[in-house]
Amino acid sequence: MSLFLRIDNNIVAIVVSIIFLKNITNSLDKKETKNRIFVAIFMINTIQLIDETLTCIINRQPYTWLIPISAMLHIFLYILGPIVTYMWYVFANLWINKNTNYKWKNNIIFLLPIAINTLLAILSPFFKLEFYINNFNVYQRGFLFFVPPVISYFYLFCGFIIIYVNRNKLSRIEFLPLFLFGVFPSIASLVQIMFYGPLLMWSSIAFSLIILYLYIQQQMIHIDHLTGAWTREKFYNYLNYRIKQKKPKNFSIAFIDLNDFKKINDTFGHNEGDHALINVVHIIKDILKKEDFITRYGGDEFVLFLNVDSEGEIKEIINKIYDYLDKYNKNSRLEYELNLSCGYKLYDFNKHMTADEYISYVDKLMYRDKKIRKLNGKVSI
Questions:
Q1: Is the separation of the CB atoms in 122 and 72 below 8 Å?
Q2: Would you say the pTM of this structure is higher than 0.70?
């Protein structure tokens, strides 16, 4: 296989990666941990592409002074491989948990394979462990060549597991790109391991990252920055679409308001208020079906879109939310409780209500429930 045919995928991926990397670093909010992790993955992968391309160019060149350079490049190549997949696992964690800070100190054992691989890679040029460069400046696989791929697949597998287990927290449009992100590089790396020659792994990761970034950009428009709920605009557009469908399907919206939210903010601070909103969304997402969703409509006001056929079904969902909140409050060590007011109504296609009229009607039902709760503290549904 000619040199150019081996590295052409990498060259294209490098050029595209550099262009996208510049755009990514300027557009993503660096305050978010998951965005910093994503940028780091993209940067490391671009370095790996350049590194791998250079190793191919200098391999077999008849100059002994290139041997230590080749060894150094391969050390970095072998060290950074598992780090990329580990960081993807962290990114998946952060995405699912809506940017809750990843506790690195609690996952030191999980980093142990990376530490072992780093040591093996550094020692490899001297002891022919994972790889070595012979006297003719030819790269050779060592008897522990399988270690970095096994570690990488371990982290990918952990990522797949956490995404699948938490699939109920993700919408369909979230689940697919996250899950497939690891699939294509896994297949490409397997081909590269089995058939020595073609360079597929890092270029496939680069293009998977680009697809994921385009998805993130789309999500930034339609997803609430703090809670991960849908935005008001996206909800409104979807509600209009469902009302105007030629073959109507029954649905309902439910307005939900976090009671005493101002007191939480004033007493415990705005950060704690943010956590309260995030926790409410997490609890509700665990209950909703995949085809249902929650929207952040205002500061502490949310709207549920429920694909149901009767008000009995709605009541069942709302009661389940209250039950989950009761359990959460009993098990929580917080100095405050999460309590909600709610109003809901199955959409009646015979009344031909507009989206605005329907929203206004259900919103009033929620405020009626809120007043009743203030009077007697009882659930009115």
A1: no
A2: no
